[in-house]
């Protein structure tokens, strides 16, 4: 029997990327095979949408995509469509009512059930909607199909205990639940043994790790423990919350050699009035104080942020306070969002909703300021010699320019001249920066050194391995394996809810 193919489409934050790699692993464990690159829309036997509910257009995007698949599914009776993630957790039965051709709807707490639900829908010829109210299995214990051989996500917690008025994620992901440190470190060690050299610790509120266990210093201890793992070259984490960002974490970052001097710290607004309305438990002075401490301990730290423009009630004076913080903090880059009303959040019913044209004008001013600062900060990198970990597919023009691309220790994107010797993703190339643009650096001279790594070996092995012949989709409950490895870091931050 020929194997059925699958496609997973992911929207949203790093947690969704992490979950999607688990979904792919589950499907492959159950006998499905990934649809080849370039497969036409609607040609995969199973299409899974892993959705986000944070942005205003999330619903429109999903139903638009589902609408396009409807006639294709009519022509191919065996095709199945599944919808999971935050929007599925929120909308539940609504999805099948609006798109009755959907076969499976599952939530954020029961992603491990996908193969069983697909099989049940096929046998019963009826849509299966199953939304769990609490976590059934920590995602990291499920099988996985990682996108990268050399870099991986490692989830340390799920859920969020904050009550930000603009954010619906806590209602969909649940209360924070921490993994045991021993389980996390065992997963990291297993990843490194497979050739992974960079990991990103992942949590909806990553530095609140330990609150579940009653240990306020659990996160800094975890960072230091990662520093003891031989072969682990780079450790990152996302996304922290200013409320929980303590001095012991700054010390651990500064004193642990493989913890990168890179920090993504969501600001959301620079106005104390707006922060209070957002129910953010810090104020401008506290935020800038953290930035100052980080820079004192790590002068080379690259700091990025999330900012929301046009939150209900935001005045011109409030917006100027945000611009002030941006000037003071000098972020390497900022992910800026225009406030969008999300049903089910307190902010959606607040007075003082800002007209679209006002929000747009403020947004453009903020983006222009941040572009200027990003460029100025990147220009400071010119002349520096950096170790760049070669990435896969980050430079769209690399073939035309005979360049490769990768990430510096502080996560800046670097395009560099292709060395004469063979270089693989995961290897490390030492280059001198010769030019800076707002969003990337350029190293035009010859590489100063090339270091072949176990991560590069792992990439080469994965890409040289012949594909195993699939045995077809098995019936019944798929086997659940031991804790499995995790995904490659995404380019941007999370959903901006941290």
UniProtKB/TrEMBL annotation:
[4Fe-4S] cluster 1 binds at residues 13, 52, 86. PROSITE patterns: MTTASE_N, MTTASE_RADICAL, RADICAL_SAM, TRAM. Binds 2 [4Fe-4S] clusters. One cluster is coordinated with 3 cysteines and an exchangeable S-adenosyl-L-methionine. The keyword Cell inner membrane does not apply. It is found in: Cytoplasm. It is an enzyme of class 2 (transferase). Coiled coil: none annotated. Residues 4-123 form the MTTase N-terminal domain. Residues 379-447 form the TRAM domain. Keywords: 4Fe-4S, Cytoplasm, Iron, Iron-sulfur, Metal-binding, S-adenosyl-L-methionine, Transferase, tRNA processing. Its main location: cytoplasm. It catalyses: N(6)-dimethylallyladenosine(37) in tRNA + (sulfur carrier)-SH + AH2 + 2 S-adenosyl-L-methionine = 2-methylsulfanyl-N(6)-dimethylallyladenosine(37) in tRNA + (sulfur carrier)-H + 5'-deoxyadenosine + L-methionine + A + S-adenosyl-L-homocysteine + 2 H(+). The keyword Ribonucleoprotein does not apply. Its cofactor is [4Fe-4S] cluster. Residues 146-377 form the Radical SAM core domain. [4Fe-4S] cluster 2 binds at residues 160, 164, 167. GO terms for molecular function: tRNA-2-methylthio-N(6)-dimethylallyladenosine(37) synthase activity. Catalyzes the methylthiolation of N6-(dimethylallyl)adenosine (i(6)A), leading to the formation of 2-methylthio-N6-(dimethylallyl)adenosine (ms(2)i(6)A) at position 37 in tRNAs that read codons beginning with uridine. Monomer. NCBIfam families: miaB-methiolase, MiaB/RimO family radical SAM methylthiotransferase. Belongs to the methylthiotransferase family. MiaB subfamily. This is tRNA-2-methylthio-N(6)-dimethylallyladenosine synthase. It comes from Streptomyces ehimensis.
